[in-house]
């Protein structure tokens, strides 16, 4: 009766409405938790903060659905962020059209975040862009063998080249999320051969440092206004959307939220950290 009423009022098919309700439904069976240790419960979906519609069997033996309109609205709003990271109810993800739409959205938002960082650094007089395959154009061109660099830019006034990675992270505030973030960004102790985000960025950073003369020549080809001396400073960092608890464990390069990074940079007017920077001699 409820599904039929919603269908007539809003124009959605009954099948679509059932899909939505299935993904938001919390039953007694789903509520039972496993013996997984607390610090590993990084994606525990069977809880009221993920499934706000309760199915209850009352005294008459019938199943009833109950929910709070306020909480339901809050959680649906929260889903608008979770879907960027593929964290929708599994009942929804089994449909190919949902997965395709979610993957498209995730790519679009990630691209927006990278472009927003490039814009902010351009406002701070950095000349550069994201690098996919090569730097430069025409005869002065350098192939990039280490994978995409989200931002490679040079500030002539500061004589500073920045190699940055942008990560669209979600808000995480518990031990489970921090544990997952540590394995993804710093080091996976259960799989030591797996490369973390820091491993990948350090590899790109080292490649830029080792080929700095060629890299700068290629950048000058794209940005003729670049002027530098016999040596330049090269810095690197991972910039995230939200602050991360694991930033205290980042020893090789800074790990900062985009707001914190920009605030730190503007406060000093230069590279604000004591690490993540080297100076290299140019041979051009």
Task: Characterize this entry briefly.
With 284 residues, the protein is of the alpha/beta class. The chain is built from ten helices and eleven strands. The chain has two domains: 2-94, no CATH class; 110-281.
Question: What characteristics describe this protein?
Answer:
284 residues, six-stranded mixed sheet, 20% strand, elongated
What distance separates the N and C termini? 77 Å
Described by strand count, sense and barrel closure, the largest sheet is: 6 strands, mixed
**What series of H and E elements makes up the topology?**
HHEHEEHHHEEEEEHHHEEHE
Helix content: 40-55%
Evaluate the radius of gyration. 24 Å
pLDDT averaged residue by residue: 85
Low-confidence stretches: none
Number of domains: 2
Tally the helices: what do you get? Answer: 10
| Class derived from helix and strand content | alpha/beta
Oligomeric state as shown: single chain
**Shape from CA axes?**
elongated
Strand content: 15-25%
DSSP summary, beta strand count: 11
Structure overview:
The chain has two domains: 2-94, no CATH class; 110-281. The radius of gyration is 24 Å and the shape is elongated. It starts with a helix and ends with a strand. The protein has helices spanning 2-10, 14-24, 28-31, 69-82, 90-93, 96-123, 175-185, 197-210, 212-222, 258-268; strands spanning 25-26, 53-57, 63-66, 127-131, 134-137, 140-143, 149-155, 160-167, 231-240, 255-257, 277-281. The protein contains ten helices and eleven strands. It has 284 residues and is of the alpha/beta class. Strands 4, 7, 8, 9, 10 and 11 form a six-stranded mixed beta sheet that branches. The protein has a three-stranded mixed beta sheet with strand order 1-2-3.
């Amino acid at each position: 009766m409820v599904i039929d009423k919603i269908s007539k009022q809003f124009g959605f098919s009954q099948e679509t409405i059932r899909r939505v309700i299935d993904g938001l439904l919390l039953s007694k069976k789903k509520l039972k938790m496993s013996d997984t240790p607390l610090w590993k419960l990084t994606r525990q979906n069977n809880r009221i903060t993920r499934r706000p519609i309760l199915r209850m069997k009352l005294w008459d033996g019938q199943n009833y659905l109950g929910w709070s309109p306020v909480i339901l609205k809050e959680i649906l709003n929260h889903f608008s962020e979770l879907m960027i990271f593929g964290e929708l109810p599994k009942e929804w993800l089994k449909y190919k059209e949902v997965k395709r739409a979610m993957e498209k959205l995730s790519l679009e938002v990630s691209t927006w975040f990278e472009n927003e960082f490039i814009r902010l650094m351009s406002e701070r007089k950095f000349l550069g862009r994201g690098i996919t395959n090569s730097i430069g154009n025409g005869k002065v061109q350098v192939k990039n063998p280490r994978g995409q660099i989200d931002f490679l830019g040079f500030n002539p006034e500061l004589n500073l080249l920045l190699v940055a990675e942008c990560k669209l992270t979600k808000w995480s505030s518990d031990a489970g999320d921090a544990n997952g973030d540590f394995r993804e960004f710093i080091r996976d102790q259960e799989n030591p051969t797996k490369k973390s985000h820091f491993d990948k960025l350090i590899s790109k950073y080292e490649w830029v440092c080792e080929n700095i003369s060629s890299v700068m020549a290629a950048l000058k080809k794209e940005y003729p206004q670049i002027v530098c001396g016999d040596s330049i400073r090269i810095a690197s960092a991972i910039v995230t959307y939200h602050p991360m608890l694991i930033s205290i464990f980042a020893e090789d390069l800074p790990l900062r939220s985009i707001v914190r990074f920009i605030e730190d940079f503007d406060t000093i007017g230069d590279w604000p950290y004591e690490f993540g920077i080297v100076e290299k001699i140019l041979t051009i």
